[in-house]
Every structure is written in C-alpha cells, then in structure tokens.
Request: fold
Amino acid sequence: MSEQDPDTSAAAGAYWKENIRLLVTLMAIWFIVSFGFGILLRPFLDQFMLGGFPLGFWFAQQGSIYVFIVLIFYYAWKMKKIERKYDLDD
Amino acid sequence: MSTQALIYLFVGVSFALYIGIAIWTRAGSTKEFYVAGGGVHPVVNGMATAADWMSAASFISMAGLIAFMGYDGSVYLMGWTGGYVMLALLLAPYLRKFGQFTVPDFIGTRYYSKVARTVAVICLIFISFTYIAGQMRGVGIVFSRFLDVDVNMGVIIGMCIVFFYAVLGGMKGITYTQVAQYCVLIFAYMVPAFFISMLVTGNPIPQIGLGSTVNDGSGMYVLQKLDESLQMMGFGPYTDGSKSMIDVFCITAALMIGTAGLPHVIVRFFTVPKASDARRSAGWALIFIALLYTTAPAVAAFARLNFNDTVNQTAYSEAPGWFKNWERNNLIAFQDKNGDGVMQVASGDAFAGAPEFTEGTGPSGERLLTNEPNADSANEVYVDRDIMVLANPEIANLPGWVIALVAAGGLAAALSTAAGLLLVISTAVAHDLLKSTFKPDISEKGELLAARVAATAAIVVAGILGIYPPGWVAQVVAFAFGLAAASLFPAIFMGIFSKKMNKEGAIAGMVTGLAFTFLYIAYFKLWNPDANVAENWLLGISPEGIGVIGMVLNFVVAIVVMKMTAPAPAEIGRLVESIRVPRGATGAHAH
Reply:
C-alpha cells in the first residue's frame, strides 16, 4: 500500500461521499419493498389485488426479489459512472 | 426405458461430467486452489455462486416448507435473496479490492490481530459444519429414494464425488463444476414446474401461473382456491400465515444478514478479476438464484393444491402411487383414527413425532404405526415436508425422464454446496491457522498439501455427520445464518465503513454476538425444547430470528469497547481508504 498524494485523497473523499449517498438511497428502497411492503404494510396492501395475488403477498413472495435484482445492477452501473467521474475506476 | 434406468443414466452422465471438469481444471497453486486464480468472469462466477448457494435445502426442502407455511414461507424467499443486495452494496467490492484469500484473512489484517483472525476462523468452522451436515442428509435422502441404495451408501458415494473435485480441483475445479451443476439443477427444477403450472392454470410460466385462475372451470384464482380449501379443512388461509409480525421481520432479517455473512458465499467474490466485477457478479448470482426462488412459491402452492385434491377424503385403497412410494420410504404415513379407511387431512399433527412403523398393515393396507394418535386433531396424514419437490413430478403424473432429471438436480444442488463449504473449511485451516498463525515459513507446496489434507479430513467429518446424524444437527442447521449474522457480518461491515473500529472492539463484538446467539438457540433447541414457545421468547423473537438481536449486541459492544480502548493505528486508516476505492485492485496477493 503506497501513500496517496493529496489530489487522489480529495477525489477519494468525494467519491466515497457519493457512494454513501447512493448506498443509503438504494438500501432504503431495499428496506421498503421487503420489510415495508412484504411485512409491515402487508395486511394493508393485501386488500388490493395484482391479478390473482394479494399485493402484500406478491411483494413478499415475488416482487421484492425482482426489485433486488434491479437495485444491484443499477448500483453497479451507477458506481462505474461515479468511478469514471473521479478517475478511480479499476 | 424404465424410470429407474433413466435415473441411473441421468445421474451417471451428470457425475461423469462433473468429474471430467474437475480433472480438466484442477488447481496447481494455492492461488488457484483458494480463489480459482482470481480471473473468473463475473457471469460465470454468478452462476457458480448460485449453485454454491442453492443447497439441498433450497432445491428439495424450500418449496415444501412454503407449501405448508403459506405466507410465513416468505421469510426464506426474501431472506435468502435480499442478502445479495447487502453483499453487492456493502461487502463484495471492498473485500475483492482487499484482495486476499479468506474472510479471516480480512478480519485478521484489518484488525491487526491473530486473536481476531482465530476468532473469525472459529466462527467460520462452526457455521460451515452446522451447514454441511444438513447437506449430507440431503444427499442421503435423494440417493436412497432414487438410486435405491442404502442411505449410508448414498452418503459415501457423495463423499467420493465431492472428494474428487474439492480436493483435486480446489476453488478452480469447484467453480467450473458448479457452473455445470447450476445448469443441471435449474433445468431439473424448471421442467416439472412448467408442466405443473400448465396443468393447473394453463399458463406454463409458474411465476405468472401462481397469479392466474385455476384450469377447472371454477374461474377462481389459484391462491383464492387454496385459501378456501385450507379454511374448509380447518387451516388458516394460505396467504395469511400464523407467525407474529415481529418474528417474520426478525427471521427475514437474520436470513438476509446471515447470507451476507456466510463465508462460502463471500469467498466467491474473491475470485473475479476486479472490484467492479464483484458488484456485477452479485447481480448475476441473484438473477440465477431468483429463477429458482420465484418459481418455488408457485411450485409450493400447486403442490399443496394437488396434495389436498388427491389425498383429502380419498380412500387409502385408491391412494395415488406416489403416496404409497413415499410411505415405503417412511416419509408419509396414514393413521386411520376413525377407522373409515378414508384419509382426512386437517390442521394439527396426526400423531406425536416422526412415524414409527411396525411390520404389520391395517385393514386398508396402510402401514401400521406405534405412535400415540393425537386426539386433539382430526388429521390422519403425516407428510415429511422434504418430499414436496421430489414427489411433484409423480403427483402430476409426469414422464419418467422428468423424475430422473429431478434426481440429478437434487444431487447437483446438495453436492455443489457441500463442495463449497468444504473448501472454505480447508482454506481456513491451511491458510489462516497454519500459514498465517502457526507456521508462517511453510512453502507454497506444503500449504497446498495441507489444504488438500484439511479438505479430505473435512469430507470425512461431514460424511460421518451424514451417516450418524446427531439429533442436534437437524435442530440447529438453519441457525448457521443467525450465527453468521451475529458474528462475522458486523466485523466485516465495520472494517469497511469505520476507520476507527479497533481490534478490541471487533473481538469483543464477535464473541458477544456468537455467544449470545448460540446460547439462545441452544437453550430453546437443545437444553429445554419444551420451553420453545412464543411466551418464553425474548420480545417474541423465535430462535430462528434471534441472530438479529445478536448482531445488534455485536455492534453495541464493539462500539462501547472501542471508545474505552486505544484507537486503531494510523496505517489501518490507510488500509481502509485503499479498499474503498476500486483503482489498483490486482490479482489476489501471492503471499
């Protein structure tokens, strides 16, 4: 591990801040679709139907999984952009 | 060709394929043995991760559990997939950038302490062995039913196969074998699911079929019909479940965090070329996993519907062939309590415990039991939940080759996970205990030999656990997740996101989390199982979900201890800074 020059450190600091902001947003969505819609709000959501599924039940057994996949690929894509912006990509 | 001949053919061909791949890709160096050389493509790694991850429990047991738990089964679906979001966002890219071989490697280096490394190894071995014993039982069940051999013989055959690709091939061999195993297991899972969805709803896509109307002209939705038929039999509605909300919440969380803390999953992200590949690879892994995990709830609902239709109020003498097949294998039982020769399915256990058959048969030809009947319930049928997926093709009258395919798929699922677990155990012993703690001057060749010896020893132990399953294994196997959530996850997470966390805090946290979770589970599952009811649980949280509280305790203790002890040295701050940026990630350090 080598000492980093001040320029890279500043870029690394800003990069890390943006990463954390993105992380918090995506983890919030992750929490809302699974623990929120699938568990805490399920009794309420179950009065609505999505085809043959009660909505809360659908989020618990199908929907949250689809959202999880989208979250990971969005994160991978967005992070690549942020890394390029700060010239820190691998 | 007869179904039995087809099974031998399918299983034989798939095994020959795995062994061939293992010989082709065998490891020549420790780096190849531990992390497959570090150059695995993210999509390939995603597929291998999915096979590694989806065990006999996912393939064989999960749909059966959901079928009998209804909504409550969602804990497995969300829990075992949501953890990949945590992995991709919070752990995988940083661990890849760190660039060494194992989870204890990271903890030992980040917390500059051999004690921390050793505690991590203990957590890892504990988690992996509880998990692997369950896999070996899965191998035994599938072999005994489909290959018509003794369960012990089945376990031994399984051990020999795993020995080949784990000991010879190391991570490199396992990775490519697992890709083949993924293809076999997902094909084997999807084919009967397509058929059954088509039969029940007329829509071949199970994910959509589950939300469609039943094909019987009643115009009812699948879930609606299932709710209604279960309520008529005295069960609660399928879409409602019976666990308390806090328990469902905590079990889901424990399974998610545990997934993100399971060493054999984490280590797969050390094998891709770059940190950014680790993120993409987690996404691919989840796609491959989701294919099975979104099919499972459909398989579960269809299986329960079929089961109710064909068993309830049917005379035993007219019971379908699969019912009698599984009765011969001790996994289904009929106790004719009211002596009418007709099977009644209702809520509650038919009798206490697992069936104990006598030699004799009853008036309708059913196998007689010595179990004390449960007078509180009208239920007369015992079903082992593990059979739902395996019996599905038979329940739906599918052709022999589909049954053969499911046999090959179940074995692929169990063997791939067993191999992945054996590898983390052997790597931890050879690399973390021997090379990094006790004998730093060992040669590369010596370390590779030690890893192979450790893998062999681990296979033997796993095989013995499979042949003589101690009662506690079945009781605690699901708790590998709680233990991983409470011990390893917080230490890794704080190692990345806090520059200040020091070794005293991390060690105290891991020990507290592991000890608390272990004692809580052991109390309710081993020492005082009669007390295992909701009234006695802490905050109403069952032993399955307690890992979350263990994790919270881990964080709290770690932070308090950190505040009271000397700060982490300055070079640790620089190490953390370097793992946070992707640039400069090279192959895993050769050291």
Residues 400-438 of chain B form the longest helix (39 residues). Chain B touches chain A through 57 residues (CB under 8 Å). The radius of gyration of chain B is 24 Å. Confidence is low (pLDDT under 50) at residues 586-591 of chain B.
